[in-house]
Amino acid sequence: MKIAVLLLSGLFLLPFSSKSETTVFPLINKSKVDSTINENEELLMMIAENQLYEVVYNEIFGVEIGSNVQWLNVFGQNAFASFSNSDYFILENNRSGGFEIYDDENNFLSVAPDALKNYSLETNSGIWVKQSNNGFNKAYFYNDKGQEYTMTFKFSLGGKQEIKCHNGYQITVKGKLNGNYNITDNEGRKMTIIYNRSGIKKLYYGDRLLKTLVLQSQQSFTVQDGNGKSTNIRTRGRFNDIIITYPDGEQIFVENRYRKPVPPPKVETKTEAKPAAKS
Question: Which pLDDT belongs to residue 270?
Answer without folding.
Answer: 62
